Amino acid sequence: MRDASSLYKYVGTKGKCKLAQFRGERVVWCRVFVFVFVSVSVFCIVSYFSPLKNKLEKENMAVTASGSAQPQFISSTGNRNLSNAPLIQNSDTNQIVVPDRRSWKNLFAYMGPGFLVSIAYIDPGNFETDLQSGAQYKYELLWIILVASCAALVIQTMAANLGVVTGKHLAEHCRTEYPRVPNFILWIIAEIAIVACDIPEVIGTAFALNMLFNIPVWIGVLLTGLSTLILLALQQYGVRKLEFLIAFLVFTIAACFMAELGYAKPDAKEVLKGLFVPELKGSGATGLAISLLGAMVMPHNLFLHSALVLSRKIPRSVRGIREACRFYMIESAFALMVAFLINVSVISVSGAVCNSPNLNTEDQLSCQDLDLNKASFLLRNVLGKWSSKLFGIALLASGQSSTITGTYAGQYVMQGFLDLRLQPWIRNMLTRCLAIVPSLIVAVIGGSAGAGKLIIIASMILSFELPFALVPLLKFTSSKSKMGAHVNSIMISAVTWIIGTLIMAINIYYLITGFIKLLLHSHVKIVGKVFLGILGFSGMAVYLAGITYLVLFKNKEATHLLALTAPENQQMANEQGTGSIYCLPREDIVSMQLPQSSPTDL
């Protein structure tokens, strides 16, 4: 009887466990269904009502155009054939016109592009690399953040200057400068960089859905496309408000990390030492440093920033152009300073908490393999039991805002290199599908830990691809035939080439040492090692050959009209009339609308 009774109790307990497990899975799938249903419903509602809104806007624009002799539509200053339809259509009433006056009040007219670009410096990829840097090496890699931020300021300022002076963004210059095959290869590399940048956003969004709704990471990866589509659709009703909300959430979590500094109390001397004394100790320090660099200085940001500055209609004079370049530099410096403080606070909190002697066993295990999915415990002192939910909301906002700017960058890359345009939602879905495939495979096989490692790998890819956007930018901005009187000074050129050379040297060093270690410690037979060695070093040779080609390629002697500053050239530009393509301002990217279907759209 005892055996029968104990068996009955065992079976009953086991049945209850299975029932509880079944109920838990049912709750998860119910949440997934609700999320998908709400996402599709919102997208359908917005898509249904948006044609009505666009119709009214077109009618208003037609009325405005009938009463004004000024052109109402604008297009890229690149290839201007009949098939080159306007990238974005908007009326002059939405243009940001900078007054022709010497005043610091003009600075507010230039505010915007730098902050949109700086979103990429506080995306999930940055949070992941910052957390792992602090957990593994405490404050030793803070100097990478300082160097990368200074380099980013110089490089982003050059990208802004290129757009302001020439009226064309970086991708358009590449199309006019390089032959067809190198131009196509550069486009492929830029697209790979955009996909690599989108992978952390996919995984970060999946982690956020896991924190908020307990949805498995691999299912969250599949759902990331829907959430971004909703945000892209909602931009029609005020993208400035949407981006303000996203920035508010991201800076809220940044404020929480800074407040956590007061509880963690990192040693100020150690933090200052980490900022100003370069160190790379440990086997994985070099790889993590490269991923930090790739997460801070992204290739697609160079294309994006050179295009965003075209949203302002500035006075076409020597003084007006110099003022625009100066104010864009100030705006970028302020935005990057905020991003720098956020990254330093994340590393400092992670380093102080994970290396604390009073850490409990559970938190010690989390610090050993720290990723975004486990990082909410770092904010427990500030947010308490709500730390997981609020961190998930900020992580979701960070991923979505970075995805929106990535979509803009992808549009300009495709338009500049290929003179090809896609609707934003199509562009976003193509990039997102390419990013979902590796993220889904890693999430299913390796779980959240594997997904966190994939973020590091994606950041390293960005660092390796940076020279293919940086070298053309350095050459174009150092060319007097393109920049005229606004060409880089000798000191700026020397500093930027040193920065570019150091980045390339670190990448090549890591590639060679990492590949040699892989061959030595692998269990492949000698014949296989020789074959892999030939393939690996051949790939490195191609990598170096591509960079060398870009460095040695001679720029075409073709001066853009907007770069000329001589009086006779100014008179030539004025003689073109108000309908000249050089007098047409570029549309404000911040108020970007989803374009309507037309025969030229793909």
How many structural domains can be distinguished in the coordinates?
A: 1
| CATH superfamily placement | Amino acid/polyamine transporter I
Topology order in helix (H) and strand (E) letters: HEHHHHHHHHHHHEHHHHHHHHHH
* Beta content: under 5%
Report the span from N to C terminus.
76 Å
Structural class label:
mainly alpha
Helix count equals: 22
Cα Rg: 26 Å
Q: Judging by the overall fold, what is the CATH architecture? A: Up-down Bundle
Blueprint (SSEs and pairs):
Blueprint: H1 2-66, E1 96-97, H2 107-110, H3 113-118, H4 124-137, H5 142-166, H6 170-177, H7 180-213, H8 217-234, H9 239-264, H10 268-276, H11 285-296, H12 299-308, E2 312-313, H13 318-354, H14 361-368, H15 380-383, H16 387-418, H17 424-465, H18 467-477, H19 480-483, H20 490-521, H21 526-552, H22 567-575
Parallel strand pairs: 1-2
Helix pairs in contact: 1-8, 4-11, 4-13, 4-17, 5-10, 5-11, 5-12, 5-13, 5-18, 6-7, 6-16, 7-8, 7-16, 7-17, 8-17, 9-13, 9-16, 11-17, 12-16, 12-18, 16-17, 18-20, 18-21, 20-21
Q: What does it look like?
A:
This protein is mostly helical. It has a single domain (95-356, 367-591), classed as Amino acid/polyamine transporter I, CATH 1.20.1740. Helices cover 73% and strands 1% of the residues. The protein has 22 helices and two strands. Helix 4 (124-137) runs antiparallel to helix 11 and helix 4 packs across helix 13. The longest helix has 65 residues, at 2-66.
